[in-house]
C-alpha cells in the first residue's frame, strides 16, 4: 500500500487517538507540574485614631485575570510529586531514619495514601494473575474432557462473570457476602461466629477483592486455553502415552508447553487489566481497607473541588507503572522484529 | 481429545465432574440468585434468619399477597427514572460501536496491508494506549471540556469512548484482515481498481464476521465503562453503570436497596442475551489475539 493511501485510510483513527488519548496525556503531564493559583491578596493599611492596621482582602478581579492568563495554574515543578499525597519523599526518609525494624517501616508507609494504594494494587496484580492462569487452565482441562453438548453449556455460563460489568458483578457478590446475604450468613454459620463480617477487616476485604478478581477473569483464561487445547497435536500425546507417561505427566510435558504462548498472552492482558483495578473497590465499598492507584485518581477527581493537579500526578505515576509492567513485552517484541541485532 | 482412547478411572471422572459442577455454581449461581431475589422485598432478599425465605418469599407474600413483586423494578425504572439511563446507554453504545467500527475498519485494513516499518510502530503505540487505564486520561479531559462547555453531553462521551476503544478494536481488526488473503484485493487492483475501490468491492463483502466480533467487544467496552461515563456525564445524561453507582449512595440510606438490585438485574439482561446469541463470536474474538501469539 502506498504511503499516501495508507495515510488517508489511517487518518480518522489516528485523529481520534491523537485528540483523545495522546493530547489528554500531554495535558495530564503538564497538569501534574502545575498547582492551582492562590488568591491574589490586596494589602491595604487602614488607619484610625487608635493606630494603623494592615488588612488583606481577596482581589477577585486580579485572581480571575490571573486564572485567565495562565489557565494551567502556577508552575511548581516536582513539588506535587514529592508531597505527602504522592511520593512523600520527606515522610519516607523520616520513617526510614526512625524505623525500628523493616516491617515497622513498611507498616508506617501504609499511612501514606500513595504507598497504601500501590501496596494493594501490586498485591492484587501479583496474586490474581497467576491464580487466574491456574484456574483457567484447570477449568479448560476439565471442561474439555466433558461430553460435546455439555461443553457449549459450560462455555455459556463461564462467560457470564467476565462479560458482566465489573461494578455490577462486584455488587452482586457484595450483596451475597453481606452479613444478611446468603454467603455472609452461611459463613457465620460455618464458623459459628455471629459477628463475622467480610467487610470489617482489612485482610478479609483484600481476600474478597482477590476472590472477585479471580472469579471475574478466570473465564477469559479458560476460553483462551480451551481454544488452545483443541489444537494440541494428537501424535505427541499418543507417543507420550506409548512411552508410559501418566495423565499428569502428559499435561505437564505436552499440553502445558503447547499452551505456553497462550499463557504469555493471558498474563500480558491480565497484568494490564489487574493493574487498573478500580470498580470492585467501588462495588464492594472497600475503600476504607483497600485502595488502588486508579481509585485515588477517581477520588481526587470526585471531590467537591476537583483536585486536577493531584489526580494528574497520580495518573502520571500510574502510567509510569504501566510502562514498567509492559517493558519486558515491548523489549521482546522489539527483539522479534529485529532478530539480527 | 486427550484420553478418549483410554477410559478414565472412576475417581478422576468424579473429580472432573465435581470440579465442573463447582465452577458452574460459582459462575452462574450469583446471577440467578440475584435475579430471583430482585422480585422479593428487602427482608427476603437479605434474610438473615432463614435463607429459604429468599427463595419462597415469605415476607414478600405478607406485604404484597404474592411471593413475587415488581416493586423494585417499578421504583428503579419509574421513580428513579432508570429508563432514562437505559436509553442513554442505548444511544451511547449504538453510536460508539458505529463510529468506532467505521474508523477502525479503515485503519485496521490499512495496517494489515502496509508492510512498512511505521505500521509496526503504530501497532505498538496502540498497545501502549490499550494498557493505559482510562481513568488516568480523565483529568486531562475535564478542563478543556469545561472551557468549551461540552462537558456532560452524550456526544462528548461517545467520542471519548470511541477513542478509548480504538487501540483494542484496531488490533482486533488488524489481525482479522491479515487472515484475508492479500491476493484478493491485489488482483482487484490489477484489474484497475484503486485501493479504496478494492476495499469497497472486494473486502467489505467478506469482512463481516470479523467486524461483528470487533463490534461486540466495542459494545462491551462502551456498555461496561464506568470510569469515563461517571466523570464525563451530567446527572441527566448518566448511563446505566454510573446510575447504579449513584443508587448505592442514595438508596442505601433510604432503605431502597431493592431499587439498586432491580437496576443491576436490568443491566445484566442485555448482556445475557448477548452471550446467548453471540457466544461463538465472543469466543472467537477472545482467542483471536491469542492464536497470533
Task: Explain the overall architecture.
The complex is a heterodimer of chains A (341) and B (293). Chain A is mainly alpha-helical. Chain A has a domain of 234 residues: Orthogonal Bundle (MetI-like fold). Chain A is built from 15 helices and four strands. In chain A, the strands form two sheets. Chain A has a two-stranded antiparallel sheet with strand order 1-4. In chain A, helix 6 packs parallel to helix 10, helix 10 packs across helix 12 and helix 11 packs across helix 12. Chain A is extended. The mean pLDDT of chain A is 87. Chain B starts with 9 loop residues before the first helix and ends with a helix. Chain B has 293 residues and is an all-alpha fold. In chain B, helix 9 packs antiparallel against helix 12 and helix 12 packs antiparallel against helix 15. Chain B folds into two domains: 65 residues, no CATH class; 211 residues, MetI-like (MetI-like fold, Orthogonal Bundle), CATH 1.10.3720.
In short:
The complex is a heterodimer of chains A (341) and B (293). Chain A is mainly alpha-helical.
Helical segment count of chain A: 15
Strand content of chain A: 5-15%
* Highest CATH level, the class of the domain at 104-337 in chain A: Mainly Alpha
Multimeric organization: heterodimer
- Label the CATH architecture of the domain at 104-337 in chain A: Orthogonal Bundle
Average pLDDT across residues of chain A? 87
CATH class of the largest domain in chain B, please? Mainly Alpha
**Overall strand count of chain B:** 0
Q: Helical element count of chain B?
A: 15
CATH superfamily of the domain at 104-337 in chain A: MetI-like
Structural class of chain A: mainly alpha
- Which percent bin holds the helix content of chain B? over 70%
Q: Over all CA atoms, what is the radius of gyration of chain A?
A: 27 Å
Unreliable segments of 5+ consecutive residues of chain B: 1-5
The portion of residues forming beta strands of chain B comes to under 5%
